[in-house]
From TrEMBL, chain A:
<keyword id="KW-0285">Flavoprotein</keyword>
<feature type="binding site">
    <location>
        <position position="251"/>
    </location>
    <ligand>
        <name>FAD</name>
    </ligand>
</feature>
<feature type="binding site">
    <location>
        <begin position="290"/>
        <end position="294"/>
    </location>
    <ligand>
        <name>FAD</name>
    </ligand>
</feature>
<dbReference type="GO" id="GO:0033539">
    <property type="term" value="P:fatty acid beta-oxidation using acyl-CoA dehydrogenase"/>
</dbReference>
<dbReference type="GO" id="GO:0005759">
    <property type="term" value="C:mitochondrial matrix"/>
</dbReference>
<dbReference type="InterPro" id="IPR029035">
    <property type="entry name" value="DHS-like_NAD/FAD-binding_dom"/>
</dbReference>
<dbReference type="InterPro" id="IPR001308">
    <property type="entry name" value="ETF_a/FixB"/>
</dbReference>
<dbReference type="InterPro" id="IPR018206">
    <property type="entry name" value="ETF_asu_C_CS"/>
</dbReference>
<protein>
    <recommendedName>
        <fullName>Electron transfer flavoprotein subunit alpha</fullName>
    </recommendedName>
</protein>
From TrEMBL, chain B:
<comment type="subunit">
    <text>Heterodimer of an alpha and a beta subunit.</text>
</comment>
<dbReference type="InterPro" id="IPR014729">
    <property type="entry name" value="Rossmann-like_a/b/a_fold"/>
</dbReference>
<comment type="subunit">
    <text>Heterodimer composed of ETFA and ETFB. Identified in a complex that contains ETFA, ETFB and ETFRF1. Interacts with ACADM.</text>
</comment>
<dbReference type="InterPro" id="IPR033948">
    <property type="entry name" value="ETF_beta_N"/>
</dbReference>
<dbReference type="InterPro" id="IPR012255">
    <property type="entry name" value="ETF_b"/>
</dbReference>
<keyword id="KW-0813">Transport</keyword>
<comment type="function">
    <text>The electron transfer flavoprotein serves as a specific electron acceptor for several dehydrogenases, including five acyl-CoA dehydrogenases, glutaryl-CoA and sarcosine dehydrogenase. It transfers the electrons to the main mitochondrial respiratory chain via ETF-ubiquinone oxidoreductase (ETF dehydrogenase).</text>
</comment>
<dbReference type="GO" id="GO:0009055">
    <property type="term" value="F:electron transfer activity"/>
</dbReference>
<dbReference type="InterPro" id="IPR000049">
    <property type="entry name" value="ET-Flavoprotein_bsu_CS"/>
</dbReference>
Amino acid sequence: MSINNQSNFNCLISCVPTLITLNGAEMLFGRATLRLRSVHTLFVRWNGTLVVASHNNERLLPITLNTIAAAKMIGGDVTCLVLGKGCAKVAEEVAKVGGLTRVLVADDAAFHGFLPEQVAPAIVAAQNQFKFTHILAGADAFGKSVAPRVGALLNIQPVSDVIAIKSADTFVRPIYAGNAILTVKSLESIKILTIRPTSFEAVATSGGDAKVEKAPVVKAESGLSQFVEQKLTKSDRPELAGAKTVISGGRGMKNGDNFKLLYELADKLGAAVGASRAAVDAGFVPNDLQIGQTGKIVAPELYIAVGISGAIQHLAGMKDSKTIVAINKDPDAPIFQVADLGLVEDLFKAVPEMTKLIK
Amino acid sequence: MSLRVLVGVKRVVDYAVKVRVRPDHKWVVTDGVKHSMNPFDEIAVEEAVRLKEKKIVSEIVAVSCGPPQSQETLRTALAMGADKAIHVEVPAKDAELLSPIHVAGIIAKIAKDEKIDLVILGKQAIDDDSNQTGQMVAGLLNWPQATFASEIVQADGGLKVTREIDGGLEVIQVKLPAVITTDLRLNQPRYATLPNIMKAKKKPIDKKSPADLGVDTKPRLEVVSVDEPPVRQAGAKVANVEELVQKLKEAGRI
């Protein structure tokens, strides 16, 4: 690793006092050894973090702001990499985000559709040039697809779905559908992490003035894969992952038409609508509304579970919500064990009544 | 097409079991707990079998890395329709520290040795919830990847795969050889029938070690601790909708 620019060097200097304290024990060794060890430690301990932005070429996705927050907890410089086709506007948006040192932009037709075959080698190229100690991406469909591929290319084992950062090498993540919390120390030279957005407060979208630079150009093998089309679920309601209030329906909704009861209530509350796996499997609503271990993870201020029993897999996706309300006619449904407020009643009576009361 | 398919299957604690943290806080209790095939892997096997039934696939090889009991999982895959199996045996105590990068290295090597055209894996194992192995296999082999697949069709000399993404669905076209990881909506796995379970007993299971495949299983991560998640305070039941709405208003939630 070489000191290849001024900002790296400044960072090294600013790290010195901490490092000496950290390595206090080494005072026992001879002066020369101390100096050598410290210099070595300096390089190892310098934290430069790369955040790979999630965006849609139009705007930055909120998950990136949570991921930057996680990066800032690691300490050191934070660089954000924006890869896309026609993503100049997003790069400008990112430059204004607080706390970034640098924004790297790679605007190229090759990144159309954000295919991991193209994106991963570009991240590796940025890594090879700047020698980051950490590479972070949000734990969304994009980050989950790309981060492990980057790991394979760099021969690094990534850590998925991080919910807390204990130190530069020790991270916390849920396992077994959130029924156990694993604290894990990465023994790798580069830490590759995906970040669970609901566990980190988003950074401000203004106040920053980062330098925008071109990312290193890389020629990945083309033709391995091709983007064909996207079929996105259109909705005027807030996005599930970032909504302050979420109303979810389960098998108890009986059919897709009945979901309109939830939509009416959701519109009153400005809420997003989600679903359990049972409701998705039965075809009541599209898959991207599924909340749970293998669907979306939400942690809104208010979560209203309607006609949902509360299987382990569903709880994994919503049990960090601030207030949980359950409406279910079965008083023994497991959802009542996590609900702050439970109402044992037929949802077909309770939901319209609630909608009326909130008018 | 006459593709050779490799499916990865993992033996995990059954999805319906509520796991408990081990007293030494180094993992969860797995001894004496019901295990079964990872649900996403059942979907992977089912898809491979369906592709064989459509004459797109000629042979299905199932692979599992883990302790001797992983052979039961491989037998299940054989009973569902896999043709042969490879068990990469890892002693139980090392299996806990086996990371996706190790498994990906093993699968990538087998894919090359067996002249595989398509690797199908589950999108994630429901024990460590990593969601990494398929992407890593694709990265190691420099093959295209189609993650979170909900539909696979033959098209233009390759495969057209519908993927489940955050805002809906996405369709991509991949060249072969490729790696696909399965989402829940891809199919409904079949139950193995008794005659097929009997037949599966005669199908071959090759035994190998990671070292045979040139994969170093030195740990890349160290378990500091495993803890119970914070327990939520038990809540209260309300008598009716008025009370519910009133309580939510008082709490400032609505």
